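About this split. The held-out portion is used to measure sequence recovery: a designer receives only the structure tokens and must propose an amino acid at every position. Recovery is the fraction of positions where the proposal matches the reference. Here is one held-out target exactly as it appears in the evaluation file.
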């Protein structure tokens, strides 16, 4: 059965100007990631992995080269167009969760739907979709809790529910277990495995080799280039720890 390419980059570069000097961070990145793949990106500080993730997440544009997301060339889109792509086609999970501290879990998950100005969903439909996403990550009993009333692992589950609510073609996870204890990290990896098993494409940045080993491939960056891409063999799913009916 044929698969669709979710990410393709061709000669991707990024150069920053610092006064009269130029800092070349990405020096020609070629990537090819298929629908449903679970990929890790690793590299030392200064390797370019954060810059690459910003471009893959449509938070920034390359200086040169092409970036095709789900078949569309998004390399030269303007800020407003990139914002639309981010909201409708990408889901983000950050190390620091990025939740609104005064909003409930339910309202945090609803945010991507509220930002979609072209959406015709009514309030009740948005509420129901947010509820379903939270139930899917095992937080059906925490809908009205605010971030300070939740553990770190629960906050990250809220972030995953928020990433899923608009049914994105790609989930980008930046150090998703970096702020968590071992057990909470295992629970988050279990959820990511479940998403992958249901066909979600996931690209994850991590500095932990044992976390990267859960993915199908690890792409190693060094000095703005792909140093190597390593197959991790068969996935090693963790024991299921949360419900996943709505994944």
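Reference sequence for scoring:
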């Amino acid at each position: 059965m044929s698969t669709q390419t979710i990410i393709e980059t061709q000669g991707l570069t990024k150069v920053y100007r610092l006064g009269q000097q130029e800092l070349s961070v990405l020096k020609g990145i070629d990537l090819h990631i298929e629908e449903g793949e679970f990929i890790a990106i690793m590299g030392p500080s200064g390797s370019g992995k954060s810059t690459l993730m910003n471009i893959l997440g449509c938070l920034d544009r390359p200086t040169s080269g092409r970036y095709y997301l789900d078949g569309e060339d998004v390399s030269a889109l303007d800020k407003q167009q990139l914002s639309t792509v981010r909201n409708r086609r990408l889901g983000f999970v950050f190390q620091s969760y990025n939740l609104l501290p005064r909003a409930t879990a339910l309202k945090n998950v609803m945010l991507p739907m509220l930002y979609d100005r072209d959406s015709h969903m009514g309030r009740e439909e948005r509420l129901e979709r947010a509820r379903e996403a939270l139930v899917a990550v095992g937080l059906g009993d925490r809908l009205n809790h605010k971030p300070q009333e939740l553990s770190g692992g629960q906050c990250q589950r809220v972030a995953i529910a928020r990433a899923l609510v608009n049914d994105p073609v790609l989930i980008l996870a930046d150090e998703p277990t970096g702020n968590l204890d071992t057990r909470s990290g295992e629970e988050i990896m279990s959820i990511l495995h479940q998403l992958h098993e249901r066909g979600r494409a996931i690209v994850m940045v991590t500095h932990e080799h044992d976390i990267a080993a859960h993915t199908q491939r690890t792409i190693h960056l060094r000095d703005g280039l792909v140093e190597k891409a390593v197959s991790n063999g068969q996935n090693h799913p963790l024991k299921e720890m949360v419900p996943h009916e709505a994944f």
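Annotator remark: Strands lie at 5-18, 21-34, 38-42, 64-69, 72-73, 90-94, 170-174, 201-205, 217-222, 225-231.
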